[in-house]
């Protein structure tokens, strides 16, 4: 679906993303096929942050790859703003756990890479990159190469690169997993602030239950494979939802974390 069509659809009641009865079986023609994703349905609303958690190896990344069209589904459908998916729309940003920065390009040039490929004029893409780097606390580091940046700074550059083409929807696959606690909180807050301020939608895959609760409007808990949605939690916390530490001080925060951990205490049949 063209980016322009996504822009037209944005702001209406049609959810940015909807998955219906999504299923994935690997090796269907083999003697022992493996069903990884089994009958998953959910929607991501405009301006909503949803986290997906589940047991290790349950198929979270496979689900994300199905949603963005990197692998075909065995059955079921994916719709972007009401239109059947045909690959990954241009208005979707996908960020992985590894920053995958190009070592021979500066922070600024890494951020502008996607815009450069799309033919955006040099002045426009550099201005956009400078704004994002400043917003993410990297003022003064535009000309630094990845080898001179800390892990947290590299992830900020990767996030800026993901945001550079102004996606309506962000798909994040454990992007903060390798960071220390303090850096993780800071980048989580930066991400939540940018997403909520600009009314983007975001789907976050994470193993960190506290991260899921503090950042999200909803948390989907997946079962062991073939994975399905086991439970859904609507997160209602008071205070500034862009401040991850403030969210963790809400008395209900611990209750959500405990309940979700309880749902994860399952074993394969």
Overall structural domain count: 2
The profile of the biggest β sheet is: 6 strands, mixed
Give the N-terminus to C-terminus distance in angstroms.
Answer: 40 Å
Average pLDDT rating: 87
Order of helices and strands: HEEEHEEEHHHHEHEHEEHH
Work out the helix count.
10
CATH H level, superfamily name of the largest domain? P-loop containing nucleotide triphosphate hydrolases
CATH class of the largest domain: Alpha Beta
Give Rg in angstroms: 19 Å
Strand-residue fraction?
15-25%
- Determine the fraction of residues in helical runs and give it as a percent range: 25-40%
Q: What structural category characterises the helix and strand content? A: alpha/beta
CATH architecture group name of the largest domain: 3-Layer(aba) Sandwich
Strand neighbour order, sheet with most strands: 6-7-8-3-9-10
In CATH terms, what is the fold-level topology of the largest domain?
Rossmann fold
Q: Would you report the number of β strands?
A: 10
**Coarse shape:** globular
- Low-confidence runs (pLDDT<50, min 5 residues)? 1-11
